[in-house]
Amino acid sequence: MSTPTSTLIELNNLTKTYGQGSAAFQALKGINLKIDKGEFVSIMGPSGSGKSTLMNLLGCLDRPTTGAYRYEGIAVESLNSVQRSLLRRYALGFIFQGFNLLARTSAIENVELPLLYRGIKRAERHEMARRALAQVGLPDKERNTPAELSGGQQQRVAIARAIVTNPSTLFADEPTGNLDSQTTCEIMELLTQLNSERGITILMVTHEDDVAQYAKRTVRVIDGLIDHDQTHHRIAAQ
Amino acid sequence: MLIMLTNAFLIALREIKRNLTRAFLTVLGIIIGVAAVVTMVTLGEGTTAAVKNQISDLGSNLVMVRPGSGFGPRASSAGVPNFTESDVTAIAEQISGVAAIAPVRTASLSTIYLQEARNTSIIGTTVDYFSINKWSLASGRFFTEADARTGEAVAVIGNTVKTELFGSEDPIGKKIRVGQASLQVIGLLKAKGQAGMGDQDDTIVVPLTTMQRRLGGRTSSRDVSQMSISAEDDYNSDLLISEISSLLRQRRNIQSNQDDNFTVFDTRQIAETLSSSTELMTMLLSAVAGVSLLVGGIGIMNIMLVSVTERTREIGIRLAIGATAKEVLWQFLVEALTLSCVGGMIGIGLALVFCQVLAPLIQIPFSFNLEINLIAFAFSAIVGIVFGFAPARRASKLDPIDALRHE
After folding, report:
1. Which residues on A lie below 8 Å from B400 (Cβ)?
2. Which of A28, A85, B98, B238 suits a disulfide with B324, CB 3.0-4.6 Å?
3. Contact between chains at B14 and A89 (C-beta distance less than 8 A)
4. CB contact under 8 A, A85 and B7
C-alpha cells in the first residue's frame, strides 16, 4: 500500500465558471487543496456553496475553467474526455445519494458493470463481483434486483460496484442522504472500514455534521472558497 | 477495438434481455417488413415458375395462329375474318418445318349430364391436336381419323368437365348432351392444372366434322378460328413464324402497307409475356412490402430515441464509472443493430412458414430463394445501422453530470 504521506490530489487556484458574459456564474473562486493517499475527507457546505462542483471536478466528470489539478501527478485539467473516462475507469470509484444502480439488473450484474468496460473475462469478472458483494456484507443478494433490495442494501451494492475495480479514490456524493439513521451508521462504518483496511482514499460530500464526523478531515466550502479545513480525531466508531 | 466491440455487444445483449417486451415491440415492424418482402418475392417467383411449367406443358415447339392482333389479354379479333380449312392445308403443304397442323374451332356450349349442366369450351379439331398440344389420356381413347371422317358423335373430355359433371363416376361410355347433340364420352384427358392461362382442363374436344355437322347453330360454318402447329424439333421459330405470316398475308390478300390481321406466335412468346406480367406483379408487391420494412426501421429509430431519453441516467452511470462516449455510442448502435438483425431473422423464419403454408394453397411450387433472404436480412441490418445512429450519437453526447442528475 501507499505511504500515508504521499500526495494524491493537489488543487492549485482552481476556478469554475458556468455560463458566459453577464450570465456567467463563478461556482468556484480559487480552490487550493492537497489530499494525501489514504485520507478520508468530508466536504461540507450549504447548498450553492460549490461543493458539488468541486466534487465533479475532483471526480474528473468536469473540467476546471482555470487552475491546476494534479491527480497522482497527472495534469487532469489538460486531459481530453476519453482520457478522463479512462482515469475514472482505472482509478476512481463513485457512489451517489440516489444509488444509481441499473434497474431490472441483478446486484451482481450491477457490480460487474465497471469490469465489463475494463474487458475482464467472464469468470474472473464474476469472482471479483462476488468478492466485492461479500465485502459489503451482501453475499446472499447476488441475484436480487434493486427493486428487491432496501435502500441500505442498494447503497451497499453501489459501494461494491465502486470498489470492485480496486480504485485508489472513492467519491461519495451524499452517500447517506436517502437513508435512515440506523442504515447511515452501517454505511458509514463500511466506508470507514474500507478506508482503514484497504487504504482507499475517500472524498465525501455531505451536509450532515454527524456523517462528516466519520471522516478524519473536514473541508468546509462557502461561496466557492474553502472556509476552513480541519483535521480531527474520530469520535464515532472504534 | 475488437475488445470494445465484443464488450458493446455484451452490454447491448444485457440491455435487450433486461427489456424483452420493449425489444420485441421495437422489432415487430422489422419482423413484419422482412416477412412480407420475403413471402411476396418467394410466392411471386413460385407463380412465375408455375406459369412457365404450364407453358412447357403446352409443348415447347407449339406455334399458334389466330385471327386479329396480339395474344393474351390484349388480343382483339373483332371484325377480322377467320381462317379456312384450305389455309390449314396450304400451311401443311407449303411450309417446311411444320411437323403437324391442326385446325381449331372453339365454341362455348351448354353441356348436360343427368342433372348436371355447365358451360364448357368445346374444341373441334383433328386427331393431331392431341399430340401437338401434348395431351395424354387418363383413360379411354382419343378419337380416330375414321371418327373424324364420319363425324361420329364422340367426345374427349378434360378433367374439370369430368369432375363437374360426373363426380367420381367413370365417364367413359356415358352420353353427354352438348349443344343440340348427344355425344358419347370416349376419352378422359390427363389433368394439366391451372395458373396464369386459365383452366386448361375445362375443355371438351370433338372431331371438327362432328362439330360442324351435329352441334348446330353457328358452329356449322366451315371457318377455322385458330390453328395449332407443331414444328420440327430443330426449327427456327422466327423463320417459321415469318414464313407462315407471309403465306397467310398472301392468302388473305393483305396489301403491303397494311398490318397483319392475324397473329402467329409460339410458346416462347407466351412464356415471355406471361412471366413478364407475373414478374411485374411480384415487383409491385415487393415494393409495397419494402415500404413496410422502411416503416419498421423508423420504428426502431423512434424507440431507440425514446430510450435514450428514458435511459439518460443509465448513460450517466456508465459514463461515471468510466465508459467513454465512443463506447456508449457503440452500445446503442450495436443494440439497434442486434435488434434489427434478430428481427430480420425472425421475419425470414416467419416468411418460410407462410410460404410453406400458402404455396400449396394457391397451387404453386415453393422454392427457397437464398438471394432474397440474404437481401432482406442485409436490408434489415442496414436499417438498424442507419436508424440506430442518430439515437446512439445523441446518447454519446450526453454530459455525465447532467445525465446523472436526470430524474
Report:
1. 61
2. A85
3. no
4. no
Q: Would the CB atoms of B322 and A56 count as touching at under 8 Å?
A: no
A125 CA to chain B: closest CA distance, Å?
13
Q: Which position has the grid cell 436526470?
A: B406
Q: Would you say residue B371 has pLDDT above 80? A: yes
Q: Report pLDDT digits (tens) over B127-136.
A: 999 888 888 8
Question: If contacts are CB pairs under 8 Å, which of residues 327-346 in chain B contact chain A?
Answer: 327
> Does ipTM surpass 0.95 in this model?
no
pLDDT level of residue B303 (50, 70, 90 thresholds):
confident
User: Please, what sign has the CA dihedral across residues A161, A166, A171, A172?
Assistant: positive
Residue percentage of chain A with pLDDT more than 70: 95
Per-residue pLDDT at A146: 93
User: Which distant-in-sequence residues (6+ apart) come within 8 Å of A210 by Cβ?
Assistant: A236
Residue pLDDT, tens place only, B174-211: 999 988 889 999 999 988 766 455 678 889 999 988 88
Predicted confidence band of residue A109 (pLDDT cuts 50, 70, 90): very high
Which residues from A are below 8 Å from B323, CB to CB?
Answer: 85, 89, 117
- In angstroms, what CA-CA distances link A24 with A20, A50, A226, B260? 4, 15, 21, 91
Amino acid sitting at position A72: E
Residues B293/B66, Cβ–Cβ less than 8 Å: no
Domains of chain A, by residue range, sit at 40-64+82-231
CATH class of A40-64+82-231: alpha beta
Q: Look up residue B100 and give its three cell numbers.
A: 403437324
CB pairs under 8 A between A and B: 64
Distances (CA, A) of A93 to A6, A77, A103, A112, A185: 20, 19, 20, 13, 21
Task: Report the 10 Å Cβ neighbour count for A200.
Answer: 22
